[in-house]
Write a structure and sequence with these properties.
134 residues, 434 Repressor (Amino-terminal Domain), three-stranded antiparallel beta sheet, alpha+beta, 46% helix
Length: 134
């Protein structure tokens, strides 16, 4: 079965790029490339998908087809929003609403078009495919 992680890694290696080289060429944070290839990031922002596709010489749709938006169909939007707020407020020890395992959380710091800092809560379960992306 073809996964997003394997697809990105294979395309990158075919072009002779390192993870850092891909990140620089696509102008995306190295952390995103590392998380995608580690299977931790399963859903990409449109701009990230387009930038990676351009560098990897593929159609963005090829990448989109491999993405998985697992959390939206399983857990209610209210629970997701609650978890996002807890992450932004620095809560630790959060548990996966799907299986109860530990959530690995972080806050991605990005900037909008007017150079304003925007904080995006992110999380992925350490045991099941559940994740939060924004």
């Amino acid at each position: 079965m073809k996964t997003l992680a394997r697809f990105i890694q294979t395309k990158r290696e075919e072009l002779g790029l390192t993870q850092k080289g891909l990140a620089i060429a696509a102008n995306v944070p190295l952390e995103i490339v590392e998380e995608v290839e580690a299977g931790k990031e399963l859903f990409l922002a449109v701009t990230v998908r387009q930038a990676l596709a351009k560098v990897l010489k593929c159609d963005p749709q090829e990448i989109k087809q491999l993405e998985k938006d697992i959390s939206s169909n399983i857990i209610s939007p209210e629970i997701i929003e609650s978890l996002k707020q807890l992450i932004l407020n620095g809560a630790g020890g959060l548990k996966c609403p799907r299986c109860g395992a530990t959530l690995d959380t972080r806050i991605a710091k990005m900037y909008d078009l007017e150079d304003n800092l925007v904080l995006h809560p992110k999380a992925h379960c350490t045991k099941c495919p559940f994740q939060i992306h924004s």
